Amino acid sequence: MTVHEGFGNRALLWIIAILGLLVIYAPPLYLLAISFNPALQPSLPSLSALSLDWYMALPREKALIGALQQSLLIAFATAVFATALSLLAALAYVELRFGRTSWFLLVLLPMFVPGVVQGLALSAVFSRLGVKASMITLISGHLLWAMPFAFIVILTSFAAVRQNFLLAAADLGANRWRQFVDVTLPLIRPGLVSAFIFSFLLSLNEFTRAFYLSGRQNTLPVVLFSKMNSGASPVIYAMSGAIFIASVLMVAALALYNLLGRRAPVLEAQ
Amino acid sequence: MVAEAAQRLSANAEIRDLSSKPAARLAAGTVNRTSPMNRRPFALLAPPLLAILLLGAVPLVLVLVWSFWTWDPATYWIKPDMSLAGYSAILDAGRWTVIVSTLLKAAGTATLCVFLAFPIAYVVQFLSGPRLQALLLALITIPFFTSYLIRSFSWRLVLGRTGIVNTMLQHIGLTQAPVDWLLFSNFAVVVGLVASYLPFAVFPLVLAFRRVPPDLIAAAQDLGAGFWRAVATILLPLTFSGIFAGFLFVFVMTAGSSTEVQMLGGAGASIVSVMINDVMRVANYPLAFAISTVVLAVIFTLVLVGNVTFKLSSLFAEEDR
């Protein structure tokens, strides 16, 4: 039995779906296209006039490059901590016998806290404690933003870990640590890699918390924001376009890696 | 991988204990309690719990407490008090209208997103082969991890006076002069919000659609229902939890958003988060904390109600493993 949408309905569903994707992707891709236009006025370049002029100008923008370096460092540190803490959170979730739903909700809740409120609250607490705004304060702010996503991804990857595998390992004399290292860890590795990349990108692109928490060296989104509002130059289009497409490519590469990984015969043991 | 692991493990076990089989060892009590049934989640739970409490919960509770304190000119900070001045200031100067308009924007954006997300989920689940499905899912996942700032900003280029929309409208002769209300307007803000948070509606819907057997719709059609009748009577009720979760997610994200209004809103346009920024510019801590408390109360209530009603965790994790 198959569903018969009818040609008209099928076309309608597709048109709305494509419209939805266009709303998400068309503007940033338009910005990306404009960044290849050597003219100062923002408009689509003609194919013959494509140029990398504005990208070549990027290294001379000391403020942007300094901010990019700062952002990359913070994103890396955030990704390390968020992945490690989310792994522990997911392991705890799997082992919990009661209060699972509450634990899940507690880890997830920071995702719904508005960035401005979270940033304001943390910066007020840090300044009361006499902690100066620095990389540490920024990483703290980004950690809570990244953890819910990392947690969900890792938790989903736990579906591959069957209780029987662990029981079998235990029967064969593996203690809990060996069970984790030899059975669980290889099975959830794709989830850990995804969580790391996702956390990295979430931190790299985060703006509202960074606005409150960054110290003397601003992060890239904070610098971009101020430049966007003070007469954006094509160099801003180039930087924004580059960051956008780099983020897209990283997630796409990850999706490909997971897809190829899934095809490998993982469960020969069954 | 597993087979290797099991082999390695069994090799180790044999070296350690050649004589006894697991059952025998169990009976003899020589197996220390290492089976996964022996759960010790609290050591695992402690580090993430500590991070969430110290970085998340404690600052927010302090914001709640501080919202009742009053300004102290001596310290340029606030002093302990039990004052409702912050809350009554919300009612002054039209600040409550910003809260109302934020909730309206959130409801409108969430509704639009659900209307777009439902067909997307249908296409992903029922109209795509495995490859196209994977591609579409990737396209829906990617926006979560790109910059909301850059995506909002790019709408300026699309909707501006010299943007592509105005250029096209003039080119085909629909208008003579550029249309001004396209950018720096509520229209632009809502468009930007939909573009930013649409994936938050698509995801729960795709997860809900996965649990609908297509046979059910086909059966309804066999019995004479038209396609839309089948959607209304079979698909809608079965995916209602996904629709509700999608609406809720977008509503909550929009209620806490700021970038879209900062990038695309007109002069004087505001939304709760932008209002908090403005209040902080004059260091009015009690008022900023009071607004934050109200927003958080609304958002947490919605999420908790949603969770009780539809058990959000079941969308993501298998229960009863």
UniProtKB/TrEMBL annotation, chain A:
| Keyword Cell membrane listed | yes
Q: How does it sit in the membrane?
A: Multi-pass membrane protein
Give the GO cellular component terms, alphabetically: plasma membrane
Chief location of this protein?
membrane
Transmembrane stretches, start-end: 12-36, 72-94, 103-126, 138-160, 180-204, 235-260
In its UniProt record, which GO terms are filed under biological process?
transmembrane transport
Protein localization: Cell membrane
**SUPFAM superfamilies assigned:** MetI-like
Q: Which UniProt keywords apply?
A: Cell membrane, Membrane, Transmembrane, Transmembrane helix, Transport
Q: Which domain of life is it from?
A: Bacteria
* Stored Pfam families: BPD_transp_1
Q: Identify the residues that the record assigns to the ABC transmembrane type-1 domain, covering every copy.
A: 68-261
Database matches in InterPro entries: Bact_Polyamine_Transport, MetI-like, MetI-like_sf
Family membership: Belongs to the binding-protein-dependent transport system permease family. CysTW subfamily.
- The name on file for this protein is Polyamine ABC transporter
Q: What is the lineage of its organism?
A: Bacteria, Pseudomonadati, Pseudomonadota, Alphaproteobacteria, Hyphomicrobiales
